[in-house]
Amino acid sequence: MNYPPHNAADRFDPASNIFLIRSLVLTSTLALLPIHSASAVWITNYTSLSPGMGGSASGVWREVMVDNTGAGFDTGFVVSLTTSGEVKSVADATHPSEINEGFPWRDLDPGDTYNGLPVIAPVSLPFYPQVNGDFANIETDGMASSIVTFNFGAQITNPVLSFSDVDIQSDLVFTNSFSILTGTGNLMQSGNILSNSGSGSSIADEAIFGEEAAGSIQFTGTFTQLQFTVNNAGPDPQDDDDRTGYVVTTEFAPVAVPEPSAALSLILGALACGLRRRK
C-alpha cells in the first residue's frame, strides 16, 4: 500500500528544490556585490612604512566623505604597497610628508598648503575624486625600473589610481587597460602606458608640478591587486631619479574575497536538504 507523505514538506519536488538552490545562490551572490555610494569614497590609508630599496607601506581602506566632512573611519580590510624600487622614509628631510592623511587630492583654496607652501589663490588640481588622503612616495633611479604592487586585501571595483610628479624621462606600464579621468596637460596615454610629453601644461599645472605630470586613471572591473612598472630612462642614476606619490580610491565599498569553496558548499547543502526531504 502506498501511503501519502505526512505533510507537504516531505514531498520531493524537483522544481521547488531547484528554485530553493537558485534562491540561496542568488542571495549569497548579492551579499558579495559591492555597495556604491554617491557621497563617500574608500581610500588607501597608510599607517606604517618600511623605507628603503624594496620597501613597503601598509594600512587599511578608509571611508571618507567626498566633501571631506569628518575624519572618516577605517575598515577592517588591509591594503599594502610593495616595490622593487625605493620607498622614501619620513626621515627624508626634503620630502617629510611621505604619509600624510591631510594631503589634498582636491582643488586648493586660499589658506590651504601644498607641499608645505601656502596657497594664496584658488588652484585646480588634476585629481579625481576630490578628497584628502594618504600617499606613499616611490623613487626609481635613472636608468632603472621599479615594479609597484598594490595588494588590496579585498575585492575593489573600478579602482582609481591617482599620482603626482611623474618625471619627463619616465613612463608607467600597466598590466591592465585603463582610462584617464583627469590629468595635467602633459600626461599622455598610449595603450597601457602613461608618459610625460614634457609640454602642454597649463600655467596652474606649471605652478604646482613644474614639468612633471600628474592625474587620475581608472580601471574597469573588480580587482584584488594592481601592478605596474616604472621605467626611468634618465641617464644619471642619481640626478634623474623619479619620485612619485600614489593613492588608490574607489566609489564602491570593499568586499571580502570569497572563499573558493563557499558557493560550492552552499549548493551541496541545498541539494542535501532536498534529498533529505525526499526520503
TrEMBL record:
NCBIfam families: PEP_CTERM. This is PEP-CTERM sorting domain-containing protein.
